[in-house]
Design a protein that fits this description.
five-stranded mixed sheet, Heat Shock Protein 90, elongated, 364 residues, two-stranded antiparallel ribbon, HATPase_dom, transmembrane, 10 helices, alpha+beta, phosphorelay sensor kinase activity, 62% helix
Amino acid sequence: MLPTKKLQIRKNYVAWKLVAVNALVMLIVIWLAGVSVKDFACVLVEKYQLVGDAKTDFFQRTMQFYLIRASLLAVVVATLIHFFFIKKILSPLKKLTESTRQLIEGSYPEPIEVNSEDEIGELTKRFNAMTLTLQRSEQNRKVMLSNVSHDLRTPLSNLNGYLEALSNGVIEGDRELYLSLLEESQHITRLVEQLHQLSLWEDKGTDSMIFNRIPIDEFITRSLQSFQLELQHKEITLDISLEALDIISSEDGLRQVLTNLIQNAITYNSGHVIWISGVADRDDYRLTISNLGESLPEEQQDLVFERFFQADVSRQSRDGIKGSGLGLAIVKEIMAKLGGQVELSSDMNKYSFSITIPLKPNKT
């Protein structure tokens, strides 16, 4: 029973299947070539009667014996050599199988060493990249859940505490208390809305986005109009320099990006001017929004596009409005979907957010 089961397992191995197929092909080729040579030699012997009948019969039997022996020896040697190379070629596939099993069981395998540049080597590279992406996604998910729960815990606790005290008559409501509760409620609302927006853009594919021809200078000017009251209230002026150009992009995506960047510049502005400039090159339109702000350490500048990142308290909104730490993460996600980029640069206490918008969408 055991040998039969072992043989059945071996039949399932790709290496054994390849070896068996190649051995059969080689056997057929060697046998056909040998038979052809034998028949040709026998024809020559009979035609020219080089030997007698008895010797002719002996010659044919001898030729057949050597043909069989040579064929079997050639097949055995070729099979051994072939098996050695097939086993070496399929070794990465066995590692891929084991790593896939680990992924299915919920653990992340170590990267597989790439020893070739062929199709198997390319498959191994892609598998390593996929594993790393899955691992990062899992880490981001855990961090996101932790940050969401942390960011919601405080305002919800405040709301529950005050509402419970009000309902029990422990405290009486006044304008200041209700404004504080409203602020906590608005913070939660902003957080949930931005989480929803981030989720929508993460799941949105390029094929599902609508691309239109947009006069980018007019589009930016219209987007700024919704901030006029806030700008007047904070006594902030805009220094605008935009190159006129038509691009093909997503209006919804660009409107969300502009809204988040302009709101960020207004919220964390320590001066009275915001600079907005737009220039075009051969393939992109580069829009830069600059403002004066509190000092931000260089090591933190690389983190501003991470989800839930919030700088120290000294850089919080001058009006005391709590940020969600998601606005710039949404900008980064949208720009990636549009095929562009976003970056932050600084010169002393002047901070500039720049986005590069492709003139035409890349839907490949």
